[in-house]
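How a chain folds remains the central question behind the approach discussed here. The record that follows shows the chain in one-letter code together with its fold in token form:
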Amino acid sequence: MISVAGLSTGLALRIVDATADKEHAMIPDEAEHKRAIDYFMENIEKVESVDDLVGDYQLYSFVMKAYDLEDQIFGKAMMKKVLQSDINDRDALVNRLTDDRFETFYNAMGFSDGGKVNPNTSDDDWKAQIVAAYVDTTYVNAKSEDNEALGTVLEFRRKAAEVRTVFDLLKDRDLAEFARTALGLPDAIAGGDIDKQAQLIASRIEIGRLGDPEYVESLVQKYVAITDATADFSSTNAAIQLMNSAASGASGSFVPVTIDIQAIQGFSGYRTR
């Protein structure tokens, strides 16, 4: 993959936009990923139950990685309970976990009858979707390792259309961080009252337009402009002074002020569409 380490987020994003399709196409041919994909394609049809899936470490780890749950692979017992859940039961484990990756994974896998049935594993289209998710997650995570802010942008792009309420946005760590930065809000407000956070963000982001690519890109450009401005200039930069003043008032309490986006864009050379 092309490394974007050390580059500004704006430059890294332009490179990614120019090369993403080619790099996605290359991942399945890389030896490590080719072995994993081939094993999945050759063996997933044998899986009929959650026990079958978790019992085959290569298959289990593959689908977990596909849905960005590699950090949870060790928790087999919990993942079994998640996949055996009845999502229509409010008290089911899948509904009690605040990290939306688990619900996404649950829905993608498609087990039913307490985890005993899965008609998807012999469906070629379903297999292709899982492989595509694996490739895309591999790609995004690699870029995020190079440039964390770029990774956040890519996560926002691929998840934005799925956001239905402001709480969907807030419960996802990457999306929430994106929103705070794009709006010029201090990260410290994340520790405040969730309803107040939701009200503040909903008043400044049109949640109903997150399925509109042009609107999404306008938010991306704001995020990139602020990220690069705060990364590329010294602490005397007006942008950083604004960030610092936003973080705390004279009393030490948080003051959620919005950074002047136009001023930031003037420093960084970016414009919203």
